[in-house]
Design goal:
Length: 273
C-alpha cells in the first residue's frame, strides 16, 4: 500500500491537569532561518563574549602582551571600577542591560501567553529603547494578530519583566505597531523633598515652630484698599412727562491686578460678571 501523503504535524500535544488536550503549533522553519533568528536574539551577548575572547587572546598569546592567565584576567577586570564610578557610563550600561533583559522577558511572556497566530509566529520585536522610567518596546504584530490580543495583559507583562507597571498603546498610523512602556522606577518618589519655602524656618528648633512663628514670616502682598463707589445716577426728566432712572455699572480700580465692578446700588458684582 502506498504510504500516506500527509505531512507530519509541526506542533506538539500537551495534556493539562483537567484532562483537556492542548495543541501548540510551531512554525515550520528551515535551519538557516533558525540560526539567523538565534544570532539576532542573542547578538548582544555574543558580541560581548566575542570582544572578551579577542582581548584575552591578545593578552596571553606570544605575539601580544604575553601575560599569564591570572594577570590577564586582572587587566581585563581593571576597567570595572572606573565604569562603576563614572555615573554616565554606569547609567548607560545599566540601561542597555535592562533593554537586553526586557527583550528576552517579553518574548518569553508572549510565548507563555500563547500570543501567536495560526502559523505559530510570535509578534516581531522591532526594538527596545531606554526611557527615564524604564524601557519602551515596539512590537510588530504578524498577520493574524492585533492589539486586541494584548488586552488586559499589562499586569502579566509587568510581572514577567520584573517591573512596577506596564502600559500598552497602539500606533495611530499603523494598527500593527504596538508600544509597551515598561516602568521600573518613579523619578518623583523621593524620601526627602527640598523646598525653598522652608528656608526661613529651617534653622529654628521644632519647639519654636508654632502657628505664631509661621505667621510672622507671612507678609501680605499689597493688601487691597477699600473699594470706592460712585453715587447712583440721578433721574432724568423725559419730555413726555415720565421719569426714567438710568442704572449704570461703575468700576473702581483697587490696584493694577484687581478691578471691582459695582452695581447701581454700590454692591460688588465682580463675581457675577
Amino acid at each position: 500500500m502506498p504510504k500516506s501523503t500527509r505531512k507530519r504535524s509541526t506542533g506538539r500535544v500537551r495534556s493539562t491537569s483537567r484532562g483537556a488536550v492542548e495543541t501548540i503549533t510551531r512554525p515550520s522553519k528551515t535551519l538557516p532561518v533558525i540560526i539567523a533568528l538565534t544570532l539576532w536574539r542573542w547578538r548582544w551577548e555574543l558580541a560581548c563574549l566575542t570582544a572578551l575572547a579577542v582581548v584575552y587572546y591578545h593578552l596571553v598569546t606570544p605575539g601580544g602582551w604575553e601575560f599569564d592567565p591570572v594577570p590577564a584576567a586582572l587587566v581585563m577586570a581593571a576597567p570595572a571600577p572606573v565604569v562603576l564610578t563614572v555615573r554616565p557610563v554606569r547609567r548607560f550600561l545599566r540601561n542597555r542591560c535592562w533593554c537586553v533583559i526586557t527583550r528576552h522577558r517579553i518574548r518569553a511572556c508572549l510565548t507563555e501567553m500563547r500570543t501567536l497566530n495560526y502559523s505559530g509566529n510570535l509578534p516581531f520585536i522591532v526594538g527596545c529603547f531606554s526611557t527615564k522610567t524604564g524601557e519602551a518596546v515596539y512590537l510588530w504584530m504578524r498577520p493574524g494578530l492585533s492589539a486586541e490580543d494584548l488586552d488586559n495583559k499589562a499586569e502579566t507583562i509587568a510581572a514577567a519583566c520584573w517591573a512596577r507597571t506596564a502600559a500598552i498603546s497602539r500606533s495611530e498610523r499603523y494598527a500593527s505597531l504596538i508600544r509597551l512602556d515598561i516602568d521600573r522606577r518613579d523619578p518623583l518618589a523621593k524620601k526627602h523633598i527640598t523646598s525653598p519655602l522652608l528656608d526661613d524656618t529651617s534653622g529654628m528648633p521644632e519647639a519654636a515652630v508654632a502657628d505664631d512663628a509661621l505667621l510672622a514670616f507671612i507678609t501680605p502682598e499689597n493688601a487691597p484698599s477699600e473699594p470706592t463707589s460712585e453715587p447712583p445716577a440721578k433721574a432724568d426728566t423725559v419730555t413726555s412727562g415720565r421719569t426714567k432712572t438710568t442704572r449704570t455699572k461703575t468700576t473702581a480700580a483697587v490696584d493694577d491686578n484687581h478691578t471691582v465692578i459695582l452695581g447701581a446700588n454700590g454692591e460688588d458684582v465682580s463675581d457675577y460678571v
